[in-house]
Amino acid sequence: MKEQFDVTIIGGGTTGLYTAFYCGMRDMKTKVLEYQPEAGGKVSFFYPEKRIYDVGGFPGIRGEELVADVEKQAKSIQPSVVTGVKVTSIDKLEDGSFVLTTGTGDKHYSKTIIVASGLGTFDMERVMLPGSEKYMTSIHYTIQRIQQYKGKKAAVISDSRVGVDWAMALENVASEVHLINHDADFKAVYEHDIDKLEASSVQVHREKTAVELDGDGEALTRLKLNSNEWLEVDDLLVYQGLKIEKSLYEEWGLPTEKGRIPVGHDMSTNIEGIFAAGDAVFYPHKTMLIASGFSEAMTAVNSAKKTIDPKAKSQVYSTVIYKHS
Ligand SMILES: Cc1cc2nc3c(=O)[nH]c(=O)nc-3n(C[C@H](O)[C@H](O)[C@H](O)COP(=O)(O)OP(=O)(O)OC[C@H]3O[C@@H](n4cnc5c(N)ncnc54)[C@H](O)[C@@H]3O)c2cc1C
To answer: Given phi > 0 = left and psi -120 to 50 = alpha, else beta, which region is 152?
Structure first.
């Protein structure tokens, strides 16, 4: 059965999620395809714990809270959301509609497409040590909820600013924090951050590497350094850089500028029926910000609606649609 959607959104970051909500406002049958197991994009991946101050209406909101709210808003219109899938190709069918194919070969049918897939997919470089498979539940690649480290002994493996930031954030919560750097210096760190690190209770192990993980059979309890020293550790955080796979826009027939898709004022791309929004797009003076993505999403959805139904209104007001709430 080829279930066809009015619109399929590639990417479930903040832009993709808000796009889904707005598709509901325009009464469109909507699907979201997201590569990560969870929606939220860069905000969930890079800074869920950080406060964001430049989204209208929120004087300050933590990344994960903003994502939870945008996700709640999206789910209110009950879109079909498929996570853990990577769109690899897009083909236009004879009737002008599209078939999107994922890495697993699954096909998704849609009248229009909105590309909200940022600059591509990203994953953390994973740690491969004796014991890491066995104790993988104790190994983390982002700080999702800092309170989960409360009173625990934590180690951070990193040679960069990200590791220094994490160690300093954990210092306020964990009972003990180790920062392990194979190098003598940290990359891209301000001097005053190093001064703060040195003045903190974080135990910095420079020019050391972790060589083995050990535990009680269920959870991690200790970590061995190449100096043969064992550190007592309950949780291990690792930042060894990112694996970024650039978006496949050119392969999809969408020319790029600086890796992003040039769009018209209506967020149209060079392919009729395909629109784009958020970090994925390029136009003069484009700001790479969450709020810009929200605004572009509305325009992209209104344009997709007009493609399907040329007589549809150019825009709608939520206060008119949601009369009783
Ligand atoms: C460290 C940092 C701090 C920032 N701070 C702020 C701030 O304070 N305020 C602010 O407004 N902005 C900030 N930004 C920018 C902001 O995070 C981005 O503008 C915003 O996240 C873009 O959202 P998006 O949904 O367009 O793209 P993304 O968040 O990149 O989401 C794209 C999604 O598409 C998915 N995807 C990609 N390719 C495919 C594919 N082929 N198939 C399926 N899924 C795919 C990805 O997995 C991802 O989930 C910051 C960015 C960074 C990195």
So the answer is: beta
pLDDT 10s digits, 3-30: 999 999 999 999 999 999 999 999 999 9
Top mutation candidate among 35, 42, 292 for ligand 1, by most atoms within 8 Å of CB? 42
CATH number, domain of 283, equals: 3.50.50.60
Q: Which helix (H) or strand (E) is 304 found in, with range?
A: helix 290-308
What is the identity of the amino acid at 125? E
Query: Distance between CA atoms of 125 and 36, rounded to whole angstroms?
Result: 15
Q: Domain check: are 103 and 144 in the same one?
A: no
The Å distance, Cα 43 to ligand 1 centre, comes to 6
Residue finishing a domain among 240, 275, 296: 240
DSSP 74-141: HHTT--EEEES--EEEEEE-TTS-EEEEETT--EEEEEEEEE--TTEEEEEPPP--TTTTTTGGGEES
Q: Which residues are CB-contacts of 19 (< 8 A; sequence separation ≥ 6)?
A: 9, 114, 116, 277, 297, 300, 301
Q: What is the pLDDT of residues 176-186, one digit of tens each?
A: 999 999 999 99
Alpha-carbon gap, residue 42 to 238, rounded angstroms:
18
Domain tally for the chain? 2
For the record, the structure tokens of 300 come out as 């992209």
pLDDT of residue 44 exceeding 80: yes
Q: How far is the CA of 42 from the centre of ligand 1 (A)?
A: 4
Q: Give the H or E element holding residue 305.
A: helix 290-308
Give the range of the structural domain holding residue 212, as residue numbers without chain letter.
Answer: 126-240
Q: Which atom of ligand 1 is nearest to the CA of 88?
A: 41
Tens digits of residue pLDDT in 223-266: 999 999 999 999 999 999 888 888 999 999 999 999 999 999 99
